[in-house]
Amino acid sequence: MVADATKKTASSDRIKRICCCQFLGALIFAIGLTVGLLMGIFVYHGQKKESQSFSLDRQISQCHTRNPIINSDYESSVFAPLTTREMVKAAFSLLNQSIITSFDPATDLTQNFIICMYLHPPEKVKVLNYLDNGGPRVGRYAKVYVQRGAASPPDVMEYKVGPLGSDTPTVTALTQEGEIHFNARSYDLVELTHYDKLVEKDMDILAPLMAESFDGAVYPRDLYIFYFNGPPGVKAEERETRFVIAFWGFDDKNDMDLFHFLPLSGTIHCPGTDSSQWYTYSFYYLNQGPYRNASDLMEGYSRGSMKKVKLFKGFRETIKSRIFPTRDERKPLRNFAHQPGSRSYQPDGPRYTVAGTKVRWMDWEFQIGAGQMRGASLFDVRFKGERIVYELSSSEIVVTYANDGSAQNGIIYTDSTYGLLGGDFPTLILSDVDCPHYATVLNTSYWSSTTQTPGELQSICIFEADGQEPLWRHNAFSFAGGLRNRYLIVRVPTVVGNYDYVYEFRFQLDGKLFTTVSATGYIQAAFWDADNPHVGSDKTKTPFGYRISDYAMGPIHDHTFGFKVDVDIINSSNTFKLINWKAGSILEALSTQVNIQEVPPYFVYNQTRFIKWETLQREKGLKLNYDDQKFWTIVNEKEKNKWGVERGFQIVPLQTAAQTLTEAHPAMKALSFTKYHCAVTKRKEEEQHLTLLHDINRISDPKGHLDLMLDKEGIVNEDLVTWLTVGFLHVPSSEDVPMTTKVQTGFLLKPFNFFDRTASFDMPEYFESRNHENVDHEPAPETCYEEKYKKFCKYC
After folding, report:
1. What's the Enzyme Commission number for this chain (predicted)?
2. Quick one: which of 546, 187, 192, 545 has its CA closest to 401?
3. How many helices (H) and strands (E) does the chain have?
4. Which residue from 438, 477, 668, 727 lies 20 to 30 Å from 462 (Cα-Cα)?
5. Cβ-count burial of 330 within 10 angstroms (0-12 exposed, 13-18 middle, 19+ buried)?
6. Residue 45 pLDDT greater than 80, yes or no
7. What is the mean pLDDT of residues 277-285?
8. pLDDT at 48 over 50
9. Which one has a higher pLDDT value, 362 or 42?
10. Do 376-417+520-577+616-758 and 189-323 fall under one CATH topology?
11. CA pair distance 245, 526, nearest whole angstrom
């Protein structure tokens, strides 16, 4: 009986376990079914959402586009840069008159060859008659500089060749024979080739010194010679070229390292055309010298009587990593740096047109000019059909260095001597760096003095930019309104040796015209000698700059930019007026208008601010003075706005530096424009630029400086030119290594009673009144993709 009971109990337990298992299985099935249904629903709706997204993406169309270039015929323009065809035609005209003897590459100083050429500025009176009165078309001429090494005596001549549209252009000499001394000519690669041959012998003599001092360096495998420590003399007939040794920057020996200069230098006596008579002298090592020649220096070094320097072993292998401007792969990327950055695009294509070099955009129209020596320019700038500027052009860049070094002290560059746009330096638009990908790019031409052939460069880009800010805005109780700031930009990057400059002209919707120039590139450094007797106990700096690397310091220098601004307010009869910003008593303020003896009782204080007007009667140079602030305005006294006020424009310089050199400096006459921030002169055809190309090489007697132009002529109701000078001082720091990041300056031309009211209220804007009675919006851009980025659009 016990056994039967036990069996019944076991059977009952087994049935219970089976039931439990069945229940658990049913529960798991139910849960699985529920989860499966939920997942199915999720997947279904996800697929539906993806299908909807796919359907939406399929609706994205390609952005509208069009070519803004109506035609590319430069030769039909009055102001456009010379074409290569025109350059060849000008060159043949010189060849036909035996001014040059061939187009063979220039190899010898005794040749007659073309240094450079660019468009000769047309006469303004004839241009205005053509543009405004339908007069005869103005011909195009080339201005050509010829180095005449075969002449007796040799010299440099300037010629005007044209009209270039003629079958037989005429050649007219612009200078007298011998007026530009041969020794005052610009440097070129022909001369530098002769330098190299001469200095090779000295480098062989100094090979042991260089190997021991400079980490086993060998010339020319590891070292090159830098000759551009100008100017080459004080007088025109002198020619003395100081040189300094430096490391090559990179393996291909094409790019020079202007950062690691070495404490070995000398001077080349190099006047005339007979290089067999040239010689080297005045050698220095670690500022010890002068030694008569390389042999004397090597003898002194070998005797052990000199202070020596030895770069640490392996230094040469570190040069590329120090100065090569590529991403430092030893450092991690910043957060999200792997993602593409924000960009602008044109949803409905460009809103400007280009015909030759004539540009139209939003009631602005102007023509672009350029020349290889002076750079970019604008001509015949009009807004809403009225001329504002006849010419706005870059004229000169001056860079003046200070340093405690045998070859690198007192260096002065006027960059027009080397060329501000093309030539021996590469000047190409860097895609997606200089300008957005949708910009329009124009070419400019140059003449190569080495190959004696013309060339073209992609030099100028044009595009509309989104300022991503308001041009104006207001949020009131009854309405909210604003206009997004957009502007047209003409941008011109250029290279002069180690420095890169970017010029920019910005046209705004309200009639303002910004002109800016920025500097970037390599600094020209100097050797750092910790044992220099002129360096005190603090081994981080000298009177001339800071230490910025193991063997480098950054010499202080300035960048001064000169512009020619021929403002024509409606026409060429203009007057320059100063608005003096004053502070004083109430009676002093009111007496600027009326004769009054008592202060009206409603004035709270007896001190106030007021303005006082002054008409500049004669040519004058002006300087910024923050203790005596003035508005600079150019007005047309015969043209009034609706309120009876003279129409004009204000000149507003951005933050700028002042010239710190005194009149005692030997170069100040040649660089006289740097003394002023604005100079006003009566326009003359012969006064085209702030300097002459060769004046820096004859600084004792320059022929074309600004002080010569300021001869106190009357300037009321005359055709005026304002010469504007802006710039900045540079104290190089460690953040300038390996590249100086952008530093900018410039000026603004701003309407000043030129209009009856703000000029931008003929544009669609954002405006909404609180009751929605008045509503306005800009045209809404459609969602679209650009052809260039189609590969990034999944469903396009």
Report:
1. 1.4.3.-
2. 545
3. 9, 39
4. 727
5. exposed
6. no
7. 97
8. no
9. 362
10. no
11. 11
Q: At what angle do helices 189-205 and 294-303 cross, to 10 degrees?
A: 30
Q: Rounded CA gap, 284 and 405, in Å?
A: 9
What value does the mean pLDDT take over residues 664-683?
96
Q: Compute CA 88 distance to the chain's CA centroid, rounded to the nearest angstrom.
A: 29
Question: Where residue 704 falls among pLDDT bands split at 50, 70, 90?
Answer: very high
Contact 323, 758 (CB under 8 A): no
For position 389, what pLDDT does the model report?
Answer: 98
Locus of tokens 């012969």: 686
What distance in Å separates the CA atoms of residue 397 and residue 386, rounded to the nearest whole number?
Answer: 31
Q: 181, 693 in Cβ contact below 8 A?
A: no
- Burial code of 771-785, b = ≥16 C-beta within 10 A, e = fewer? eeeeeeeeeeeeebb
Q: How far apart are CA 493 and CA 506, in angstroms?
A: 14
Q: Which of 155, 404, 415, 736 is catalytic?
A: 415
Query: What is the amino acid identity at position 486?
Result: R
3-state secondary structure of 280: strand
Please state, as a whole number, how many other Cβ atoms lie within 10 Å of the Cβ of residue 703.
16
521: alpha, beta or left, given left = phi > 0 and alpha = psi -120 to 50?
A: left
Q: Specify the range with the lowest mean pLDDT, choosing from 42-51, 180-189, 385-394, 705-714.
A: 42-51
Task: Report d(CA 471, CA 186) in Å as an integer.
Answer: 46
* CATH 3.40.50.620 correct for 189-323: no
Greatest Cα pair distance, the chain, in angstroms, is 148
**Residue 682 dihedral angles phi and psi, to the nearest 5°:** -75, 130
- For residue 608, the model assigns a pLDDT of 94
> What are the sequence ranges of the domains in the chain?
2-59, 189-323, 376-417+520-577+616-758
Q: Say if CB 269 and CB 278 are below 8 A apart.
A: yes
121-135, 696-710, 766-780: least confident range: 766-780
Q: What is the pLDDT of residue 10?
A: 46
Q: How confident is the model at residue 143 (pLDDT cuts 50, 70, 90)?
A: very high
Residue 414: which of 393, 400, 394 has the closest Cα? 400
Confidence at residue 784, expressed as pLDDT on a 0 to 100 scale: 83
What residue has token string 């540079």?
A: 730
Query: Whole-angstrom Cα distance, residue 380 to residue 508?
Result: 17
What is the DSSP code (8-state) at residue 400?
E
442 confidence band (pLDDT: 50, 70, 90): very high
pLDDT of residue 787: 73
| Active-site residue, 167 included | no
Specify whether the CB–CB gap between 227 and 241 falls below 8 A. Answer: yes
User: How confident is the model over 50-69, as pLDDT tens digits?
Assistant: 444 444 445 688 888 889 99
Annotated catalytic residue 301: no
User: What's residue 254's pLDDT?
Assistant: 66
Its pTM stands at 0.90
At CA 131, angle to CA 129 and CA 137, rounded to 5? 75
Segments in 630-720 forming alpha helices (H): 706-709
Rounded CA gap, 705 and 686, in Å?
12
Please give the sequence-ordered ranges of beta strands (E in DSSP) within 37-153, or none if there are none.
61-62, 69-71, 112-119, 142-148
CB 769 within 8 A of CB 485: no
User: What three-state secondary structure class fits 143?
Assistant: strand
Q: Which backbone phi and psi does 320 adopt, to 5 degrees? A: -60, -40
320 has pLDDT over 80:
yes
Q: How far apart are CA 301 and CA 311, in angstroms?
A: 16
Closest CA to 370 of 81, 591, 115: 81
CATH code 2.70.98.20 for 376-417+520-577+616-758: yes
